[in-house]
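Researcher: Here's my situation. A collaborator sent me these components and asked whether they could plausibly form a single complex. I don't have experimental data yet, so a predicted model of the whole assembly would be a useful starting point for our discussion.
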Amino acid sequence: MGALISLVAVVGLGLLAAVGASAGDGLRFVLGVIVPGIAFAVFLGGIIFRVLRWARSPVPFRVPTTTGQAKSLPWIRNSELENPSGLTGVIGRMALEVLAFRSLFRNTRVELLPDKEKVNYIADKGLWAAALTFHWAMFIVVLRHFRFFIEPVPVWVEALQSVDGFFQVGLPVYYATTFLMVVGLAYLLARRFIDPKLRYISLPTDYFALYLLLGIALTGILMRHVEKVDVVQVKAAIAGWASFQPVAPVGVGLWYFVHIALVSMLLVYFPFSKLLHAPGVFLSPTRNLANSNRTRRHINPWNPEVQGHSYAEWEDEFRDKLKASGYALEKE
Amino acid sequence: MAEKSPQELIQIDLTPPPKRWMNPAVDFEARRGTWSYPAAVKNLNYLGMPNPREWSPADADWKLPENWQQIIHEGFKDLLKKYRTLEVFMDICVRCGACADKCHFFIGSGDPKNMPVLRAELLRSIYRQDFTATGKILGSLAGGRELTEEVLKEWYYYFFQCTECRRCSVYCPYGIDTAEITMMARELMNLVGLNINWIMEPVANCQRTGNHLGIQPHTYKDNVEFLCEELEDAIGVSLDPPINRKGAEVLFVIPSADYFADPGTYTFVGYLMLFKHIGLDYTLSSYASDGGNFGLFNSAENMKKLNWKIYHEAKRLGVKWILGGECGHMWRVMHQYMDTMNGPADFLEMPKSPMTGTVFHNAASTKMVHICEFTADLIRNDKLKLDPSRNDNLRVTFHDSCNPSRAMGLFEEPRYVLKNVCNNFFEMPENTIREHTFCCAGGAGLGNDENMEMRMRGGLPRGNAVAWARDHHDVNRLACICAIDRATLPPLCEYWAPGVDVSGVHELVGNALIMEGEGERVNNLRGEPLNSEQEGQDDV
């Protein structure tokens, strides 16, 4: 149900963009210039706002999740990347987490065999592989788009393109990352339908994000390989936008507007949704703090002003019993 | 013991129902055995906590304050301002489901709301509805829910069905820690008087007497003396541990269960034998008579109050540093919270082993050393006379307790000690040890009898791994470094892995120690004969 609503929402959005773009120059200006402009501003502003709000909340306690041996006695080998003792380790741990999805790599699947009274844990790297594939592919796809933003096309983009198109399949060449991004997304979507646990925990918004990304990828592919778009016109449109002299895009076809509308939606949606996991992972106190708890004092800015039951109060309360059992007392 | 047999209990379906989870309905009456009794009036009164009253979760009317929704809302707002963890963890979960089958309670019950992601969603749905733009606009489409009494009841059920073991947070790509979320939910429930007695009674006791069990100083002394006499009867070694002695070098802090109940008591005399063996200048304290701290399972404020006595007593006695015994959650508090809450301990000195000269730089600020670090250093420097063959009737495996594992990273020290004091050491399967370790399912205040079915369910993964070690390596002893483990693992093993007994690491150290002037050792610390082949099999 939630999956359907989200699908309808994404398709509806695309249709709306297509209808709007075919209605005339005015709406094309709105859809091609104003909407993405606003979306980009909301995206940037929203993320900055969120990150600042997170950063403003204190971290009262140093609570890293330790996943390896701590640094203790000199002859015990510690695991700096799993249980950092200082900043270098934390940077390493975060780098592994962000660039290689270290924690997901640990994933196992539980298998329960009631008749044999056995519980098994089976390595399950599918989610890790799909997530890593999708995220890296998308990252490279975004970088490749810089050929639309910068004129002349920078060398690093050219290099990226030639590596990405290494297999020289099709004309224009199919990029590996295009394929990988769609496959990764398809896997992430499929598991939400197939795995009953995932189906149970998935919210409409989980499908929405995936449909949106798939929609963006597919309209992109359409423009490059099927309904081939006039790249010169696209570049002109985007160059105008980048140089703050925007013009309504002409001769770029309807898919372009659908693509841009979905991207705009993604940008606007980002700071208000779970997509915040991207900046959020950097602020996760169980990962970005060193396990230096006993070596360096951590300060809690709101440390409650409470005291325990003092020794004097305790001695007063149990004085007779303490005396009777021969304890040395502070006050006789 | 749970009424169902292990064969019945293990018939678990991990497939969730097709309908959505958002409409809450917990039938407490039908689910007896899987929840804990609420806090007694006297305990909340003693602690000055809100809404003390007689009630039962099985009642329709929970006697909540009239404006309970507002109280929770305000409380939530306050916590969001105080904890970045809460704010970030509420915002960034993508529901990838990596955590779903990592929780021992989910594996053992198949109840989908025991998937960590959904446990958190119970809170997150309210957060979205009340504090986010998308939730306010889109409501349930964006995963928002109205805070109704039914939702609150669900909180009580599921947030007292989490042992704060942090296993899920190991697998989460963003490190979302359900322990943290459970703590926040419990803070919120405190505000309207929803707490359980197995937590609040120990907290109240500890505030008054210094320990969770409410043992008063005269009884403390009697217990310690009695345990020393028992040991003398068992192995002919006499001990005379100092209590509340000023000017000692080291204050030794332990969980109170160690001087109260078997098998913790054998660990207790094991520590004391070690100290006598090396001639450590130490003292026990009948005031700081519990390092354990059920405040951790209740509120940051209560945790600080109960922990406060440790440094206070160290200062009064004029010791140089603090040594801590085997206890899991106690060590989470000592390691991750104590210095922040009640430090700085600038009146203490950098801990240094008087026997080996080793300086414990890893405790430079907190000034508190874990007994396993201390003992491992002694063994490494050849300061102990050990006869590991005295543990030859034991085939030992090690249960990594949740907190020393995932909140400290204390993995090698206890293993090093064990391998030096026993000849037969075997590991359980790798997905069930170290950072992947499974909880005893009785931590965080859930180790009570009325919750026994849930404990056995949650104990399935651990119990199954122990049974594996028993079947593959003839293991008959499960060693651990946690007092809650020593209380909860014996029934768990009896249920899931019969034939395996539980002990602390320092009980086995005590067995192996060759004490000065001792005669031939014929018994272990439990008074059972050593090294007799048939005993080894029969006594378990």
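Model: Some features of this prediction you could bring to your collaborator: Chain A has 15 helices and two strands. The two ends of chain A are 75 Å apart (CA to CA).
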